[in-house]
TrEMBL record:
Entry coiled-coil feature ranges: none
InterPro entries: Bact_solute-bd_prot1, SBP
Annotated protein name in UniProt: Extracellular solute-binding protein
UniProt keyword annotations, A-Z: Signal, Transport
Annotated family: Belongs to the bacterial solute-binding protein 1 family.
């Protein structure tokens, strides 16, 4: 079993999210974007979904490219629906020079439309030198490399209140059996509701499924399911649904019972743990930290986290993220892609906080706190066993649409997990329809 020993009674100790460290100006193995001033007068447009602090930090990263090359880079937000932003621009032959896509499925979709430009020169070399095979393949289509995973999110974390665990006399579990057989049961016996569920946000339920499936069925099966090389009626899917029922089938274990679980969205579920203290745990990614702080918790003290427990031999490591792609052949585009794939650029962003990298050359001490350092290390140490969010790799009508596909089927299953075979059949029907 792969084990991640996170400090603090087996849990992840987290320091304040606002802490900063200086990022090194030049990291080992960096790819230089070009000589100073060699792109003077060149203007480039980059589009991504980020706003607020994320946008500010990314534009600071872009400023490093401008300073190095003399180019001018303008940032434009796509809004939450990247496809709705890019579709008309592609049709009008006016795409941004570089776009950041929130789903690998969009890389394949736009490559099929000849809307992407393959990486070449220093950009292709930077991808090859700084990323392992799985991450390179994620942004590739039919052997051609198009994308660079620029920003990652760690989706294999369960957050908890240490005071609730102390009151019940339990510790963070390392296995699913310990979570469901000891931790949650003991909390419930002590009068503490174990889980807040975010069921109204269907994507959180797909994340539950993906973690259990990856750990229980293994990476090879996971890839086969992504590609629909096996049906969703496969025994491995049914077994995962049965495993989820260990939690989803116990209404007393969820804040508000079954109806509360289905009706509570993200991030309201986080406030049920931190602030309202209606539950002891909530499952979701590293970005829970921000919502926990907004609810009044101190991350690392009153809000802590532990790795999603192992269901099979290994604990799962599931990530989401954003992939940068070139959409024009303008001067400077490949140099910008090389820069974005470099440890220099990503070390800068790591030092600003709220960021994870899958770049093997970004050092752990580039991150501002122990929390992020540990998450980054688990992503890299998982090697070829780490997997990208399944629902973001399948057609969006199946994996990422409200009221349809995986979201709808899993919400129904959360309401009544009595028939996993029927739920698997509905997943297969929805997957086939989306294709």
């Amino acid at each position: 079993m792969r084990e991640y020993m996170w400090r603090g009674r087996g849990a992840l100790a987290v320091t304040a999210a606002g802490a900063l460290v200086a990022a090194s100006a030049c990291s080992p193995g960096s790819t230089e974007p070009g000589g100073a001033g060699d792109l003077a007068g060149v203007e480039l447009l980059v589009a991504a979904k980020w706003t607020g602090v994320e946008q500010e930090n990314f534009t600071e990263v872009l400023a490093g490219f401008e300073e190095e090359t003399g180019a001018t880079v303008t940032y434009e937000s796509t809004g939450e629906d990247t496809g709705a932003y890019l579709g008309p621009k592609i049709e009008a032959d006016e795409p941004p020079d570089v776009a950041v896509l929130p789903q690998p499925g969009l890389v394949r979709e736009y490559a099929a439309q000849d809307a992407l430009v393959p990486l070449s020169g220093d950009a292709a070399s930077a991808l090859e030198n700084n990323y392992t095979g799985y991450w390179r393949d994620l942004g590739s289509v039919d052997g051609d490399a198009y994308g660079v995973l620029l920003k990652a999110a760690h989706k294999s974390i369960i957050w908890y209140r240490p005071d609730a665990f102390d009151q019940a006399g339990v510790s963070p579990p390392e296995t699913w059996d310990a979570l469901t057989g000891t931790t949650a049961g003991t909390l419930s016996d002590a009068g503490i509701t174990p889980f807040a569920m975010c069921g109204a946000s269907g994507w959180t339920l797909t994340d539950w499924f993906e973690n259990v499936y990856l750990s229980q069925a293994g990476p090879e099966k996971y890839d086969q399911l992504v590609a629909h090389e096996i049906p969703w009626t496969d025994d491995s899917v049914v077994q995962t649904l049965e495993t989820l029922a260990d939690v989803w089938g116990k209404k007393d274990w969820m804040a508000g019972g079954t109806e509360g679980a289905v009706q509570t969205d993200f991030p309201t579920c986080v406030s049920q743990v931190y602030g309202q203290e209606q539950a002891a745990m909530v499952y979701e990614a590293d970005f829970v930290a921000a919502s926990a702080q907004e609810a009044g918790a101190t991350v690392g003290e009153t809000a802590q986290a532990f790795p999603f427990p192992a269901v099979g031999d290994d604990a799962p490591v599931v990530v989401g993220g954003d992939i940068a792609v070139a959409m024009s052949e303008a001067e400077g585009v490949q140099q910008l892609m090389a820069y974005l794939a470099s440890p220099d650029a990503q070390t800068t962003w790591a030092g600003l906080g709220g960021y994870l990298s899958a770049n093997s050359k970004v050092e752990a001490d580039a991150y501002p706190d122990e929390f992020t350092q540990t998450l980054a290390q688990t992503i890299l140490e998982a090697g070829d066993d780490v997997r990208y969010d399944l629902s973001d790799q399948v057609p969006s009508q199946f994996g990422a649409t409200e009221g349809k596909g995986m979201w709808a089927v899993l919400q129904d299953y959360l309401r009544d997990p009595a028939d996993p075979e029927a739920a698997a059949e509905k997943l297969e029907q929805a997957a086939s329809k989306a294709e």
